[in-house]
Input
Amino acid sequence: MPAISEERLTLNNGTSIPAVGVGCWMGVCGEGEQVTEMVKTALELGYRHVDTAANYGNEQSVGRALEESHVPRHDIFLTTKLDQSDHGRVEEAFALSLTKLGVDYVDLYLMHWPMAYDKSGNTLQPEESPTFIETWREMEKLVADGRARTIGVSNFSIKTLTELLAHTSIVPAINQVELHPCLPQHELLNFCSERGILLTAYSPVGKAKFADDPSITSIAAAHGRGVTNAQVLLSWGVQRGTAVIPKTVHAERLKENIQLVQLSAAEMETLDRFHQKPGMHRSVCGFHSAEFGGSCWGWTYEQLGWAMAMGGFHL
Ligand SMILES: NC(=O)c1ccc[n+]([C@@H]2O[C@H](COP(=O)([O-])OP(=O)(O)OC[C@H]3O[C@@H](n4cnc5c(N)ncnc54)[C@H](OP(=O)(O)O)[C@@H]3O)[C@@H](O)[C@H]2O)c1
Output
């Protein structure tokens, strides 16, 4: 069996993040014992990176796991995210997240999506206030007083990042986006690494929707007994320089997901090109697909800067 990954990736403020974390989106919004148990088990197994969000509705349950574990707070890299409905009240939303998590700082605070909702829950257009640039300026204040060690964004594209970077004093440390071999986002990865922005891969095992493809299975088999398809996908993610945050409620899978293998250059290339197989270039979350009707949370793909058409992708 491969060793537990203790690999860390350096952020643009000189701190570092464990390459493998545990994701806390449980498929439904809300507090619950299951997420507490998952995070406690993950910490026992050696995970030191936990990813949640105000939007998941489970910050209190995650906080309970941190409190009940015997791992010192300073050894854990904790991420939470600003909800779209809170862009106009960053300070209040952040303070509430800290209270629910039971901590006095987070290691990373992400703007969950670039678009803001108004008080009635309607999406504001990109030029309407608060724009993501205005929201970002409010987030920068949280770094100044140390309650957010780093800040970053999520679901940003080359287009939206270019706009943001033109107006920021702090370059986002991280952009968290959907990344797996069906949606490798090679151009975004190059763009971000040239600017010192690390990508975190969400849905890194593709929600287990394509991992049984023969080209992935054969790579797993080549690494010997016990190496799984999920480990191949996560190893590819880390080896290309991204952090990965798989979610699983099963202890055996938690154990598996933090043990990575060293892939050869040829294996990396197979996975880099995997999306070129007919029908494979796609989102597994549905955000980038026909079911969202050419837009996502009220912004068109063009506004989001997503180079894809409804129901498919431009390669
Ligand atoms: N920023 C954003 O907008 C955003 C969006 C989506 C997700 N995220 C973050 O990314 C995290 C992970 O993404 P995700 O949950 O969408 O997808 P994922 O981690 O790729 O896949 C999770 C699914 O795969 C299964 N799974 C996990 N490990 C496995 C393994 N070793 N073998 C077989 N099946 C396995 C899990 O099932 P079981 O639990 O039944 O094992 C679950 O159904 C989330 O929890 C969240 O923290 C962020």
